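re: the backbone from monday

yeah here it is again, tokenized this time
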């Protein structure tokens, strides 16, 4: 599966485009909608299926409405992060009202271009953070980065939940590629080895 990473916004969020069959999904379109739209235009004819949000923080959602209005994507988010405007207000940031089409929870499966997207609840950064696993590719949002993890000091964050979520992800197949919300990509194998010698 071809995955295109686009770094967007002042906090340099990783937005991802990926196609299965002729269906397109966009993960975490955080900002710079025009930049994302330009890359979508290079894909040719596709069906616009999902915007997959790993969580609701402003830096991951600011281009959602423009993509939804232009292409008709279904917006997907973990059920506990569905109040996007409310959770951002808690950290002093105003975001546009975003219509969520599908709320998901642990173990739920989304059909996508003949493949399956598995939802893994991975709280710790936010109460409703989720990761998306499709084949050997994991979109981990702000839960697991290369050699570190997301912050836990914002409303809804939890050190204990983060530790549980990291354990959960590091039990996945070691060959899985990890596509995080910020920074460089990695693998389960690399992170499992790293965290053997480093505390969560």
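seq for it, each position gets an aa:
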């Amino acid at each position: 599966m071809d995955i295109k990473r686009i770094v967007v916004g002042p906090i340099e969020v990783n937005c991802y485009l990926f196609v299965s069959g002729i269906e397109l999904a966009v993960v975490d379109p955080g900002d710079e909608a025009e930049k994302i739209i330009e890359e979508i235009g290079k894909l040719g004819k596709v069906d616009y299926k999902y915007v997959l949000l790993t969580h609701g923080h402003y830096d991951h959602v600011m281009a959602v409405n423009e993509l939804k209005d232009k292409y008709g994507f279904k917006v997907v988010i973990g059920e506990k992060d569905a109040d996007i405007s409310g959770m951002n207000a808690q950290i002093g940031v105003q975001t546009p009202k975003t219509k969520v089409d599908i709320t998901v929870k642990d173990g739920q499966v989304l059909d996508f271009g003949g493949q399956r997207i598995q939802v893994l609840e991975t709280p710790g950064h936010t109460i409703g953070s989720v990761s998306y696993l499709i084949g050997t590719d994991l979109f981990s949002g702000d839960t697991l980065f290369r050699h570190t993890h997301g912050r836990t000091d914002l409303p809804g964050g939890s050190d204990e939940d983060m530790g549980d979520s990291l354990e959960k992800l590091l039990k996945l197949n070691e060959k899985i590629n990890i596509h995080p919300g910020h920074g460089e990509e990695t693998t389960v194998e690399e992170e499992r080895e790293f965290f053997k010698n480093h505390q969560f």
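Residues 3-196 form a domain with the Metallo-beta-lactamase; Chain A fold (CATH 3.60.15.10). The chain has one domain: 3-196.
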